[in-house]
Amino acid sequence: MNIFTEPTSIVDSAQAALTALSRVGLSAAEDARRTNTYMVVEEDGKVLRESPEEYLRKRTEHVSQSSSKHSA
């Protein structure tokens, strides 16, 4: 029995969950943009109402900051 099998599967499961949540957020932003409505999001424990464009801009900034931290 390989002791490294379980942690790898946990990491893979966590990554799959994050990817699925990301897709749901993008889908919600597209739906909101298509119907010309706002999104309700949680940020730092606060419920905010923001445009889909703002949501996508923040998401893009967050992804670019995360990738620059990993490459440093």
Please give a handful of descriptors for the protein shown:
72 residues; 2 strands
Unreliable spans: none
User: Any idea what the radius of gyration is?
Assistant: 16 Å
- The percent range for strand residues is 5-15%
Give the oligomeric state of the chains in this entry, treating copies of one chain as homo and distinct chains as hetero: single chain
How are the strands of the biggest sheet laid out side by side? 1-2
Mean pLDDT: 83
- By DSSP, the count of extended strands is 2
Number of helices: 2
The chain-level structural class is alpha+beta
Order of helices and strands: HEEH
Shape summary? globular
Distance between the termini: 36 Å
Percent in helix: over 70%
Q: What's the main sheet like?
A: 2 strands, antiparallel
Any overview of this molecule?
71% of the residues lie in helices and 14% in strands. It is built from two helices and two strands. It has helices at 5-35, 52-71; strands spanning 39-43, 46-50. The chain has a two-stranded antiparallel ribbon with strand order 1-2. Strand 1 and strand 2 form a beta hairpin. The longest helix has 31 residues, at 5-35. It starts with a helix and ends with a helix. 4% of the residues are buried.
Question: Brief description of this entry?
Answer:
Helix content is 71%, strand content 14%. It is an alpha+beta fold and 72 residues long.
Write the layout of secondary structure elements.
Elements: H1 5-35, E1 39-43, E2 46-50, H2 52-71
Antiparallel strand pairs: 1-2
